[in-house]
Write a structure and sequence with these properties.
Largest sheet: 5 strands, mixed
Number of domains: 3
Strand order of the largest sheet: 3-2-1-9-10
Helix content: 25-40%
Structural class: alpha+beta
Shape: globular
CATH topology of the largest domain: Nucleotidyltransferase, domain 5
Strand content: 25-35%
Length: about 325
């Protein structure tokens, strides 16, 4: 079995080269602590995320990754094993080969932690591949070409840009501000401007719905900041764009600096083709417009911005030259 895995801070996607997407759910795990002090997994994905902010005593909904990297090896291993078994409803079996995405700005120690967690979860052999490269492959770009390509990947924990050509990364930048900070900005805006406390799930849903370019107002529910009673409020998509703008401005400012490290001929290649944008937070209102303005280059959104990293990782398994050039082990 050959799989491509996008182990993101906010979402995990598992793709099979022929069967397509096997798993696409939030990167959340629900645990119960027993008398033996060993934590037992009760749920992963949507089932676990549904309990964020409403977890009963004795249970904990945890996110195994922080800013796109593994912070606790045992938790990550347990999570990956649970994801593989859940994806197995559509054909997973022991003896998995996989390419797993890692942030382009991750250190050797950080990507080694991802590989060790995957190996201990039963994935052997496993190769790490920069998420920017994997996403490009998933969108039909050949990173071995002599032409320079530039991509921007905006996830939940990190936002990154990378320029690459002929088997090597020419320049990259990473921002630790990303989708999670945008969600917090939306929740803060609703609290300050509409006097309504909303949970993480509600703020995330509002951010996503606003990105769908709906014409009418969006209805959000929460707890009134004054009375403490449940209440509904209407929020315009433009308000969401205003709420996240300080975060997106900081992200774009960091990512745009990638151009400073490129030679004129490399920039000419990017100008001719444009910058490819993908990732779970790439559709946030106003982000692509601000990115295009700051870079001074055309920006186009990937057709499958949420799954292209996993799909590209799965395709990379069949290209030994590509893995030899860009793979990490």
């Amino acid at each position: 079995m050959e799989l491509g895995i996008d182990l993101g801070t906010a979402n995990t996607v598992v793709s099979h080269g022929r069967r397509g997407i096997l798993y696409d759910e939030p990167t959340v795990m629900l645990l119960r602590s027993g008398r033996s002090r060993r934590e037992r997994v009760l749920a992963v994905g949507h089932e676990a995320a549904d309990l964020l902010g409403r977890t009963p005593a004795g249970l904990a909904a945890v996110r195994p990754l922080d800013d796109g990297v593994v912070t606790d090896l045992e938790t990550a291993r347990t999570y990956l094993r649970s994801v593989l078994h859940k994806a197995g409803r559509r054909g997973w079996s022991p003896g998995v080969r996989a390419v797993i995405g890692v942030p382009v700005g991750s250190t050797a120690l950080e990507h080694r932690a991802v590989l060790e967690a995957a190996e201990e979860a039963g994935i052997r052999p496993v190769t790490a591949l920069d998420e920017s490269i994997a996403g490009a492959i998933g969108c039909g770009i050949d990173p071995l070409e002599r032409r320079v390509h530039m991509v921007v990947d905006v996830g939940g924990g990190t936002a990154e840009t990378a320029a690459f050509c002929f088997g090597g990364v020419l320049a990259h930048r990473t921002s630790k501000l990303a989708g999670n900070e945008m969600t917090l900005a939306v929740a803060r805006y609703v609290r300050e401007q509409h006097q309504l406390h909303v949970g993480e799930l509600e703020a995330e849903a509002l951010k996503i719905r606003a990105g769908d370019e709906l014409d009418g107002p969006l209805v959000v529910q929460g707890r009134d900041a004054v009375t403490g009673r449940p209440r509904l409020a209407t929020v315009q998509p433009a308000e969401v764009a205003d709420a996240v703008r300080p975060v997106t401005d900081d992200i774009v400012r960091t990512l745009s600096a990638c151009l400073d490290d490129l030679a004129p001929q490399a920039i000419a290649d990017v100008m001719a083709e444009g910058v490819l944008l993908f990732g779970g937070s790439s559709q946030v209102p106003g982000f692509s417009t601000e990115l295009e303005r700051s870079l001074g280059l055309p920006v186009k959104l990937a057709e499958e911005p949420l799954t292209c990293v996993a799909e590209g990782a799965a395709r990379a398994l069949r290209n030994r030259r590509l893995l030899a050039a860009y793979g990490r082990s």
